[in-house]
Amino acid sequence: MSSLEFHKEGESASLYDAVRYPSHVHAQTHPERLATIASLFGMSPVPATRCRVLELGCGDASNLLPMAWSLPESEFTGIDLAARPIAAGRRTAEELGLRNLHLHQHDIRKMDPSSGPFDYIIAHGVYSWVPHPVRQQLIELLQKCLAPQGVAFVSYNVLPGAQLLNMLRGMMLHHVRDLKTPADRLRQAFAFADFLNQGMAHADSAMGRWLHEELDRIRELEPGHVFHDHLAEINDACHFTDFMGDARCHGLQYVGEADLRDMNESIFPHAARQLLDRLEGDRIRREQYLDFLRVRRFRQSLLTHASIPVAHRPSARQIRRMMLQCSFESAGGPMDLRPGISHRFVGPKGQAVESDLPLGKASLTILQKRGPIAVPYDELLRSSAHQLEAASVHGEAGAPQQEAFDGFLLALALAGVVKLHSWQAEMPVAPSDRPVASPLARIQIRTSPTVTTLHHQLVKLEDEVGRTLIALLDGTRDVTALKRDLVAELEGKGILDAASPHTEKARREVETGLENNLRQLCRMGLLIA
Q: Domain range holding 404?
């Protein structure tokens, strides 16, 4: 949630200055992602490489800084009510030498719409945390500031799922109701969570098990998250139909969700999908009933002007304009590319998918080899066809087969197996002779083990070797110099003890593992070309 919570004049700003809300990157808000989803629904969004982006409630601009650095021809503006986060974001932007990022301490209620139009507007964690009149002002601002083919991202809590969270939040607020200082409220909120968790540890009811799992999740959150989310004065959920009622009143329409997996209906039984098809002519009502089926508690919806033609379903054919990425690996022995013979692919978290489509099987093996680098559709289709030809599998090049291939890719994208992209940051496929880590990652590693990748995702570097290595990757050292300086840095930090009899072995392990560590950093998207 951002820092746009409105109580008395000036109160929320002081609260967000007193207790910082954790600010991170959100891959689903990247203009490349928004352009990809909008294209699937038939829109013609402005390319991410030359666009204008506005983020309302940007905090310290952790979400905007990587965008601005990797998209120098685009322009980014961030608005936040709290002074300290804005100041921190400006310091980082100055260190990175960014001239396309503008950060302002400002109240969105007083924002001048003439600063637009913006091709993409991000309002992450604002709508549910402000009073109803401010919600109306927010939606109105989106409509006034959005470019003709613009896309607005709005996240918010929804019913029925958020009702369960409200129950837990109500208990926590009751416990801290007489406490005044943020520190006291936070301390007692965590103490109360521990009390409930201990009491629910052996719960055998569905509600008890859910509550126990949710309390475990709360214990892993940063204090600022708990303070501004669970202990916030305002945290209101609504039905999707009510949210869209606000949007429609201000001339906006629904495009889709920012995460394709949230639109995957294949997870429901056939009978349920047949009943949902009766609502095919009323998309908003249909989406509401999908929320009921999912017991959904949070949405990340995309909006655009009501006058823009928008399809009700994502189009598989639009994938032909995109790039694709997949980390699933072939499993189960040698692959037979012939039609009708299924082959299994396994993801990094143990997920599995099977396909008997020749072009599909060939494409997944190609995407696997390319790793984190996305492959343009035309190249993927051509390479897959060549692979089939080499295996003497024929009859896969015609239009019907290509349409089946498109449908296959869309189904995998909706299932989260394949990722679709309209743009990809330039990154190396292997470390260079003098490797360079992202300048932003080198800044972030000074104060946190969590850094931002070129994929606009967070990665936590668990070991001191990786964290120290990132700081050294400024392009001035070859592998020999990196080995020498990495060992010296680790000795200086006490990680390697020069007096220990085991130090020489540990030093050799660091040196021999360097090139593997560099390859891993490259695959994670932390090295630049």
A: 321-421
